[in-house]
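quick one, 66 residues, struct below
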Amino acid sequence: MDEKLKSYLEKCNPATVDQSTLDDLRTAMEEAIPEIAESIRQQERLAARFRTAASRRPQSRTGNQD
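---
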C-alpha cells in the first residue's frame, strides 16, 4: 500500500454504524447478488450466440460467392 495513503488512513477515526443499518445492507445485497449473477449469465449466453452467429456468416457468404 502507498505510504501516504497508509498514513492518512491511520489518522482517520473509524465511523460508527448502527447494526440495523448493516443488517439492512446485508439483506439488500443478498437479494441483489443473485439477480446480478443471473443478468451476467444471460449476457454471456447472448454474447456466445452472437459470436457463434458471426462465425457462421462468413462461411455462408464464401459459399454463395463461388
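Helices lie at 3-11, 19-65.
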